[in-house]
Write a structure and sequence with these properties.
Its main location: mitochondrion. This is Mitochondrial fusion and transport protein UGO1. Keywords: Membrane, Repeat, Transmembrane, Transmembrane helix. By secondary structure, the protein is mainly α. It has three domains: about 80 residues, no CATH class; about 80 residues, no CATH class; about 240 residues, no CATH class. The chain is built from 20 helices and two strands. The longest helix is centred in the N-terminal third of the chain and has 37 residues. The protein starts with 18 loop residues before the first strand and ends with a helix. About 10% of the residues have low confidence.
């Protein structure tokens, strides 16, 4: 060992320092005691007292013992103050922090409830279109016109048959008979003059249809359904089940965040609720955890979603509409067996595109929001459109399964959510539910007006406008962030 290079000898490196590091031993002080031994000694009260020089020997006096006790108490109080200061526990009770916390909570509640109120009429209209078998005013008018045409055609045939009945066999009398037939057909002019009377009949029929027990919109557009609902039940009918929708959304995000935050430390990955999948050290595990948390949350909140559907499809004043009382009467708080598969499918369809798209773009294509913002934004828009057209048929299956459970399956159970006398309490006539795989087929080939491709993708126009609007707001916000970052550079 050379004197010019003392660091080769760990024991002689910086011997004047209060603490040194020795390989195989750790950090030690000048007396050779390690930090681990000091922590172990401080945890024992007797050793902590002796370390402070407070041990009482056989010749100590009563006064020194009292002084030692006072020093011990001061030492313990100092430890408590150090612990609380490290945890920053008292900052939560500062007036400024409490005010900021309350402001943040109020802003979040107001923003969330406002979004719920804006979207609720469209959600109600879409759900009624998904589960209802409608008779529209326009359809009734078309049927009436067709019936009137058939009746007029039948009456003309009868007149011709009567005229042919008096036809003569003699050739000499054909000309007079021909003139006679022309005179007899003259009343057809009076039939044309009676058109205003038929129009009045159509108006009476329309008025009669509007007063039927089920909702009768002009057409099957979402706006016409909302208008019919407004005219039949007023403003309260449009914003039915708004409180349940708001509570469901708040609980959904809270439960999903709690589940991912609880499980992610065991998997040694960041919380996917707060960290994007592409920024995780294990993206695949993070993606699977996020999707699993979404499914578990949907299954846990399925009874609340069932209550929401019940409040939307029933008439105002026809049944109990208190959320608290309805929940208190439930015999169980789990999802019904017949709704497990539809709920799982709906929750996956609602979230799988949002969470899988960033993962696929980053892992397989190397595209993210920072390196390729334009390409990433366009791919996100296309993904949202695909999600909409995949989600709507699955959502139709779920809503019909829920109404079928409330109307049919609940009759054989003691479920408090069952709808008694559904013919008089439902807003629309139930279109029926025939299973997960055949419901869409029956909806397409339905003999009523709510059939065809439109019956499977009800609400796609409003949904597409919502997707484009959200995408546009996201583009505006990202451009504002870019401008702010450029201003900060200067």
């Amino acid at each position: 060992m050379s004197d010019l290079r003392p660091y080769h000898d760990p024991t002689s490196f910086s011997p004047t320092n209060p603490i040194t590091y020795r390989p195989g031993i750790g950090v030690v002080d000048q007396q050779g005691n390690t930090i681990a031994s000091k922590i172990a000694n401080s945890s024992h009260s007797r050793r902590s007292i002796s370390g402070l020089g407070l041990s009482s020997g056989p010749g100590s006096t009563r006064g020194s013992s009292m002084r030692n006790l006072i020093k011990i108490n001061d030492y313990n109080e100092g430890l408590k103050r150090d612990v609380y200061s490290d945890l920053e526990f008292m900052e939560y009770f500062e007036t400024g922090n409490i005010v900021e916390l309350l402001k943040s909570m109020i802003n979040s509640l107001v923003r969330g409830y406002s979004k719920c109120l804006i979207a609720q009429p469209f959600e109600v209209g879409r759900l009624l279109l998904q589960v209802g078998d409608f008779e529209t005013k326009m359809g009734n008018l078309i049927k009436e016109q067709e019936e009137r045409k058939r009746e007029s055609g039948a009456s003309e045939d009868e007149e011709e048959e009567e005229l042919n009945y008096f036809e003569s066999k003699d050739k000499d009398t054909e000309e007079p008979q021909y003139r006679k037939t022309r005179v007899i057909r003259a009343p057809s002019v009076s039939h044309k003059k009676s058109k205003p009377q038929a129009t009045q009949k159509e108006l009476k029929l329309t008025k009669k249809n509007t007063q039927s027990k089920y909702l009768t919109p002009v057409t099957l557009n979402t706006i016409d359904v909302i208008s019919a609902l407004l005219s039949s039940e007023g403003m309260r009918g449009l914003w039915r089940a708004s409180n349940v929708t708001f509570v469901y959304g708040a609980l959904s995000s809270t439960l999903e965040a709690w589940i991912t935050g609880f499980i992610s430390p065991f998997l040694q990955i960041p919380d996917p609720f707060f960290v994007d999948v592409v920024h995780s050290n294990d993206p695949l595990t993070t993606l699977l955890l996020s999707l699993s948390a979404t499914v578990i949350t949907g299954l846990l909140l399925a009874p609340l979603d069932l209550i929401r559907t019940r409040l939307i499809v029933t008439k105002i004043g026809s049944s109990e509409r208190s959320i608290r009382k309805t929940i208190s009467r439930l015999n169980y708080y789990t999802v019904p067996i017949s709704l497990v598969v539809p709920v799982t499918m709906n929750t996956l369809a609602s979230q799988v595109f949002k969470k899988v798209t960033p993962y696929l773009l980053f892992v397989h294509c190397g595209i993210d929001a920072i390196a390729s913002p334009v390409t990433y934004s366009i791919c996100s828009l296309l993904s949202s459109v695909m999600e909409l057209f995949v989600k709507l048929p699955i959502e139709t299956i779920l809503r019909r399964a829920q109404v079928h459970y409330l109307v049919k399956d609940a009759e054989i159970s003691s479920n408090a959510l069952k709808i008694q006398d559904s013919d008089s309490k439902l807003v629309v006539k139930f279109a029926g539910y025939s299973g997960i795989f055949t419901t869409l087929y029956d909806a397409y080939f339905n003999k009523g007006e709510n059939s065809g491709v439109e019956a499977i993708w009800r609400g796609w126009r409003v949904g597409l406008l919502n997707v484009v609007a959200e995408w546009g707001l996201g583009v505006i916000r990202s451009s504002e962030d870019v401008l702010n970052s450029q201003e900060e550079k200067f």
